[in-house]
């Protein structure tokens, strides 16, 4: 979900432990470099440099998506970048600016971080011109995380729409990891994009589809004509479902690909809310209808987790750019239950 309702509020006070400090010292020749180094160590706004080691084109078109693999240059910084599923990172394009991205890779202490970025503007535009070997700056990891430990013993349902699959990926990778899979029950993965070419992580989904412990469902949007959705299949092998009564669709044995929007696919799949958790992310309009579809199936807002993508600057609860009332999405989030999201929106 992105760009939730936001009211600008006063940023919190700058506490001593997190205060940005000026880079540079006033000491004489003997102490100057030590002071500069000490100041840099404590400057929370100072990115570390990382090298681009891999770039994968996930989806083409006017707003392409690429997955970037970064390796942090200084080995001493690797452990500090060990993240939890749901956290985000701030990527600097030197000379252009910073952008915020969900970390889409599995947590590791090797200094390897992946993000999947859609090209929408200045910084992401520059990012899409990167080549392997180029340098970027990284700050983070920031924000809270999905409570994966509290979910042990539950069935897990993951629902991603468009680029929203990126934050969802870090959680399903966690749950499906050989070290963790036994801790969770049934796993259902529902994901949709505009066309088959727009579906991200194709190799990964092919591997997931081959597993017998995951129920993977994919959909592509309806093809649109001048007067709205064109009835029929958008792609051979991707049958259309009845958009007016998706829940009545009879699914042919083994069929897992359809032409419809993600919320309608949710009504076709009918994931059970019993002892289960949903993790979902996507454009706000998709989340609105996904949560309505889940409600029809008996899911409560406290069982539904999502991540907010309010505009951010500092990423650490200082600047007041991302807040909804007194909630700082960068610091108290970006992970919230749908119950919390509803309360925030209603209150502010
Ligand atoms: C916690 C968090 C996680 C995110 N994760 C991802 C991710 O995994 N992949 C990804 O592609 N993007 C993600 N985003 C969105 C991403 O940060 C913005 O798309 C990016 O910063 C735009 O930078 P820009 O300079 O290229 O665009 P700009 O030139 O600043 O803006 C270009 C267009 O993008 C829109 N835009 C800018 N920021 C946002 C935003 N936060 N949400 C929605 N629209 C925006 C603007 O309204 C404008 O229309 C995330 C944002 C947040 C806060
Ligand atoms: S307070 Fe600065 S981005 Fe959240």
Structure description:
This protein is α/β, with parallel strands linked by helices. It has 2 domains: about 45-140, Translation factors (Elongation Factor Tu (Ef-tu), domain 3), CATH 2.40.30; about 155-305, Nucleotide-binding domain of ferredoxin-NADP reductase (FNR) module (Rossmann fold), CATH 3.40.50. It contains 8 helices and 17 strands. The strands form 4 sheets. A 7-stranded mixed beta sheet has the order 12-9-8-7-13-14-17, with helices on both faces. A 6-stranded antiparallel beta sheet has the order 4-3-6-1-2-5. Helix 5 runs parallel beside helix 6. The longest helix is centred in the C-terminal third of the chain and has 13 residues, at about 285-295. Residues about 1-35 have low confidence and may be disordered.
Brief rundown of the structure:
With 348 residues, this protein is of the alpha/beta class.
The helix/strand order is HEEEEEHEEHEHEEEEHEHEEEHEH
Bound molecules: flavin-adenine dinucleotide, FE2/S2 (inorganic) cluster
Write the CATH fold name of the largest domain: Rossmann fold
| Helix-strand category | alpha/beta
| Strand arrangement in the largest pleated sheet | 12-9-8-7-13-14-17
Low-confidence stretches: 1-34
Task: Count every beta strand, where a strand is a DSSP E run of 2 or more residues.
Answer: 17
Name the shape in a single word: globular
Number of domains: 2
Which value, in Å, is the CA radius of gyration? 21 Å
- Please indicate the percent range of residues in DSSP E strands (runs of 2 or more): 25-35%
Helix content range: 10-25%
Q: What's the CATH architecture of the largest domain?
A: 3-Layer(aba) Sandwich
């Amino acid at each position: 979900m992105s760009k939730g309702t936001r009211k600008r509020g006063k940023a919190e006070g700058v506490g001593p432990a997190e205060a940005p400090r000026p880079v540079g010292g006033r000491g004489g020749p003997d102490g100057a470099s030590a002071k500069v180094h000490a100041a840099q160590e404590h400057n929370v706004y100072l990115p570390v440099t990382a090298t681009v080691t891999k770039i994968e084109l996930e989806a083409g078109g006017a707003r392409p998506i690429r997955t970037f693999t970064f390796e942090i240059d200084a080995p001493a910084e690797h452990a500090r970048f060990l993240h939890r599923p749901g956290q985000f990172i701030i990527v600097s394009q030197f000379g252009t600016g910073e952008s915020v991205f969900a970390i889409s890779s599995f947590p590791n202490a090797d200094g390897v971080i992946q993000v999947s970025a859609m090209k929408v503007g200045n910084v992401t535009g520059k990012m899409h011109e990167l080549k392997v070997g180029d340098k970027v700056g990284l700050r983070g990891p920031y924000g809270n995380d999905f409570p994966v430990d509290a979910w042990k013993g539950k069935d897990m349902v993951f629902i991603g729409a468009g680029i929203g699959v990126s934050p969802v990926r870090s959680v399903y990778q966690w749950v499906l990891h050989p070290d963790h899979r036994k801790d969770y029950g049934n796993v259902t993965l529902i994901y949709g994009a505009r066309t088959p070419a727009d579906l991200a992580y194709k190799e990964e989904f092919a591997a997931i589809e081959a597993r017998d412990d995951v129920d993977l469902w994919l959909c592509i949007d309806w093809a649109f004509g001048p007067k709205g959705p064109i009835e029929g299949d958008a792609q051979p092998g991707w049958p259309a479902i009845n958009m007016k009564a998706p829940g009545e669709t009879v699914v042919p044995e083994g069929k897992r690909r359809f032409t419809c929007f993600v919320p309608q696919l949710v009504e076709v799949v009918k994931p059970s809310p019993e002892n289960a958790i949903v993790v979902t992310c996507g454009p706000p309009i998709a989340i609105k209808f996904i949560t309505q579809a889940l409600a029809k199936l008996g899911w409560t807002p406290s069982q539904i987790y999502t991540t907010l993508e309010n505009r951010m600057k500092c990423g650490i609860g200082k600047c007041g750019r991302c807040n909804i009332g007194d909630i700082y999405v960068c610091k108290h989030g970006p992970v919230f239950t749908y119950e919390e999201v509803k309360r925030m929106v209603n209150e502010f």
